């Protein structure tokens, strides 16, 4: 097929991450990485921490990336990115550097390098694909795993109902670095995600994006439900979509409608033990997670009260019958 | 393209394309093209979703052309149809159904106002001549659909003007006469020869028609009132409902008793009740074996009346007595002084049918000085002797074919099943005329007649996360104090209302070009095309890479994508 007749070559969007990668069916992280690179455009250099994304995109000697991409170690994506950015600066080049990592490589193992990169004010966008556990190595708990979730290293049983501790509030830690822009986004809201990437790309300085990316394998849901699960995380208030500038909350996506957290939990095998009839701790933990969601809603003021309860900017409705039409 | 192995630990950009992840798949997404439920519910065969989509895209004339491809009388049906499409509308499960009848009416009125020409199908003139007997909705529809296919059509009617029951039985408060005139005049101008004052059995015979024409379509309607008595008793001054309504429409005269009871549960009964009430009759009772619409009423058992007409009638003071029948006439000599009503219900009879069971001990008396039956009509046998064979209706198949009479077709209210299944609505007659035209065309072209049918998209197959709630438009209604015998009671929508309503459509089963599948595929396996693909959408599945996760099918708002087994 000639280039002109091949519809793949004529897509009206930049393909930073090409087909043929080995991600599981319905992978949230693959979708997130595709959306991030297509919004960032071709003039970028990527660095990638060890993790699923690195493994499934580059089974040597192939690569699914269509932009310059480097992988070194689990802990040093931000350090490599800092070096690349400094080298580009020395050469007088202006390509944007994007560092990427999973929640393991960001919340835990690579956190020191990340903090250093932010503190030194490198012109780098750091994107963390948050699937809330070490999925690549077999679903071990990470600092990002939510409270009460089952992983292979936080199994529910007589002593505990899944993970004992809470999900690390990474965004607040990032905000404490006083960087120009940090935001959370979700694969369920691609328009909002793209807008946040473009916003970060414009800024000359360190920026940070936390993208909620469901893992069908680790969370225990069907690959066809990835978006549905991600959307519920936002609608329940468990994963608020917010933007922080210099540490201050600049905007939030209001909730279209508040959904009880049980709706989100019951779709995932990692929370199945929270629905055991004969265990009083199950209800206790469900209430705990509901309280955490309510805390987020209160803290960020997620109950929208503007004229447009649907948040024209973020919610990806198809605008059938909504305020834009009337 | 072979991938070079190298020692430099690098790979060529996008070289993963050599690895076809499509082999992982056990199910694959396909575009399904299910029908919107409004389409399936429409007796006339309109595809409301299709024309609402054209209007929403800003093409009102194309929307009207799509509409009249099935129903040539949208200004009429937009006013009088009980709109089963709206009852079927998936949006009814979400907030409230699309006001399809109002948009249909608006499109019809726009066509009249701007004189949009009725489109014809491509093709060349046909030599065959076809007679259509009866210029009511079924006859007009058949004549139009035949003329669209370039046949020579002669449409005849006993009355001086075309319209049939639209003129003789529907009050102008529901259907203004200038609307009928304008729409029918434009319709006949498509190239239909109209012969008024030609009644079957009086001016023409069936034999003459059979010898002069290649095919004959009988749309003579049901013009004879069904026989009515109560245990053999009939008042001396009996008038039946449709006759009274026709007389009132023709000359404006209506009897004015002190109190009247109308027996029947159709539009004739309700229209007559409202006319008599407005004429000053103090007590107007309607006794019907059917129920009033409500949460406890079986939808099959509801009064066969346009819902808003029923509401307006109750507003105007008509008294309804549902689930009752007239048990006995209380006579003084041959004059009625009252009726005895009894409660009844249609209940299963143990043989798979429903029978009317009246309940002893529930008798009540209404003091009235007039009883009007409006229990329906049967075919007037004049000129139809051999076809009717002593039965009340003509038997045909769905394309109007009468067994044993090749070249002879029938449709509309004169067919038995249409009365039973669809209660003889204008839209059902229009659908009948359209299918008969297909039957005639098939016969004269030597092929089998066809009627397309697609499965309807269930509400559960929509993804509601992508729709927003929006109120149905409110239509202007004449206040009670201003209603008279001639002014139209319900108004139409204005342009912005019609457009807003079209934009509320869920587009059930049909691609909205929202980009969701293209945007949300983690594997870059949905490709977008500039031109429309052969299946009518702008998206292609690249099965070389599709892993079959099903995300696109789950996130498609309108149920256009479905996963099928791919072993």
Short account of what is shown:
Chain A has helices at 28-40, 52-57, 77-91, 103-108, 111-119, 170-175, 190-202, 216-219, 226-236, 261-265, 280-300, and strands at 44-48, 69-71, 96-102, 124-130, 181-186, 207-212, 242-245, 248-252. Chain A is an alpha/beta fold and 326 residues long.
- Provide mean pLDDT of chain B, rounded: 91
**Structural category of chain B:** alpha/beta
Radius of gyration of chain B: 28 Å
Q: Quick one: CATH class of the largest domain in chain B?
A: Alpha Beta
Mean pLDDT of chain A: 92
Write the layout of secondary structure elements.
The complex is a heterodimer of chains A (326) and B (567).
Chain A: H1 28-40, E1 44-48, H2 52-57, E2 69-71, H3 77-91, E3 96-102, H4 103-108, H5 111-119, E4 124-130, H6 170-175, E5 181-186, H7 190-202, E6 207-212, H8 216-219, H9 226-236, E7 242-245, E8 248-252, H10 261-265, H11 280-300
Parallel strand pairs in A: 1-2, 1-3, 3-4, 4-6, 5-6
Antiparallel strand pairs in A: 5-7, 7-8
Chain B: E1 27-31, H1 37-41, H2 48-56, H3 60-68, H4 74-80, H5 84-88, H6 100-114, E2 129-133, H7 137-148, E3 152-156, H8 165-168, H9 177-188, E4 192-195, H10 206-212, E5 215-218, E6 224-225, H11 241-251, E7 259-263, H12 267-278, E8 283-287, H13 307-315, E9 319-321, E10 324-332, E11 335-348, E12 354-358, E13 364-366, E14 370-373, E15 377-378, H14 385-388, E16 408-410, H15 416-422, H16 426-445, H17 495-504, H18 516-520, E17 526-528, E18 539-541, H19 551-555, E19 561-565
Parallel strand pairs in B: 2-3, 2-5, 3-4, 5-16, 7-8, 7-14, 8-9
Antiparallel strand pairs in B: 1-19, 6-15, 10-11, 11-12, 11-13, 17-18
